[in-house]
Amino acid sequence: MQEILSLVLGQLRNIWRFRWIALGIAWVIAIVGWLYVYSLPDEYSSSARVHIDTKSAIDPLLSGMAVTPNADQEVSLLIRTVLSRPHLRDIARATGLDLKVTTPEQEQALIEGLQKRLTLTNTGGGTDLYTISYTSSQPKLAQSVVQQVMSIMTTMNLSNKNGGDTTQAVSFLNNEVDKYKQKLNETEQKLADFKKNHAELMPGTDDYVSQVQKLNANIDSLQDQLSTARDRKANILQQMRSGGGGRATVTPARSQQIQRIDNQLDAEQQKLSDLLTKYTPKHPDVIDAKRQIAALKQRRSDTLAQLRAHPSEIQAPAGASSGGGGGGNQLSGQLNDTEVKISTLESSLERKQSQLKKLQAGADSMNDAQAQLAELSRNYEVTRDQYEKLLSRLYSARLSTDVQNDSNALQFRVIDPPEVPAEPSGPKRLILMAMALIGALIAGLAFAWFLAQIRPVFSSRRDLTEATGFPVIGSVSLALSPAQRADRRRSIVVFFVCCISLLIGFAAAVALIPVGVHWVPNIVSGQVL
Questions:
Q1: If pLDDT is split at 50, 70 and 90, which confidence band does 433 have?
Q2: pLDDT digits over 29-58, tens only?
Q3: Residue 134: how many other CB atoms lie within 10 Å
Q4: Peptide bond into 311 cis (omega under 30)
Q5: Complete edge-to-edge strand list for the sheet that includes strand 411-416
Q6: The pTM is what?
Q7: Is 134 helix (H, G, I), strand (E, B) or coil?
Q8: Measuring CA to CA, which residue among 423, 529, 421 is closest to residue 146?
């Protein structure tokens, strides 16, 4: 720390040797800077505040139904468009700024100057309040430029009210909807023709496996019924052969107990056949009917075994207790009924078996038909879904077009119109003159330090030792006479008085700003913008 302090003090002593040169340079630079600030022309700023209303009462009502334009994006695009080069060129032409422009380079400089001095910013803190401002050396010109910008913004908004974006979207969607409508009609016709041409292969409520299971169940039921009917026919024939005129011999199979069970079994099998025409084999009612039939069959077997073991328990059926013509006629009637039933069951069984064979033979054709039907149905569903989506988008686009045509999203309201400024807004001469003073002081100190570096001296024994590498045995201080000391004190006082006079000169220059801005430009040529 001590070394740094010694180095700083040494540099200050070196600069002190050239203090008068530094003060003179500071005076010269300060005066030149102040004169330059005087020569700067006055700048007049004209501004206007406008409120661009981007809120619309219809937007919440049409949420999800129509595509409403993004008003904030429209405002941003409007601002960028106004500040584009073509419109800046129009502003310059309308306000007369291009009257002295004769070359492309001058036109380029004019446009760049407009871009720098013209500002359009949101100053409302999110309240859609925008400020348009322009700075110029001519008050009326500044007001004219701002007024022209407002006119262009209003004209652009009105011209863009009926934009063509939504119209193009509606036209495109109309074409797409027509295409998909025609494609949907063709797909529907193909699906209908396929169903018509392959009606026998079309699946009903059941698929192929369910139909096969149902036919097999029907065949099993018919076979059971046919077997029971044939047993009954054999019993009747046996009874007719054994009955001659006395007591009829009743076998266990023709007993009244077995007949009651057979009647119940016939009723349940008929019920199962009716259920299979309506439901699949896995339906609860079908399963319950099969369970009842199985129970009756088991009960019939148990009853037959019991009657065979105890013949005395056999109950003869009604009309079979005695022989004669009446009993024979009754047995003949029962035989005829049984034969008719057998014939009916055989015919039904043959028909069901034929259906099963036909179904099994056409399994591949049915699978192919079902695959083609699934593909046609899938294409139809996809086409219909896309058609409905496009139709919905078309209605939304039409509604959006109507909204944009019937309402203006951006509403301009002038809060503060542009006025001709009475007082200049710049330049900030006080700040510029203070900066010129500070720059002058820094320049003087820098030049004094530069002279100290090129004309160095040894201010201490340590500096001499470090420079030569030889030890310094001693040093002799300069002895000044009283007159010399008085001269030094006077020199220091005069120097500080001159430094204070620099500050006084700054104060005088600030006070003379109203006079200087009119006097200096008339003397210094080429500085008027």
A1: very high
A2: 999 999 999 888 888 888 888 887 665 544
A3: 26
A4: no
A5: 118-122, 129-136, 44-53, 411-416
A6: 0.47
A7: strand
A8: 421
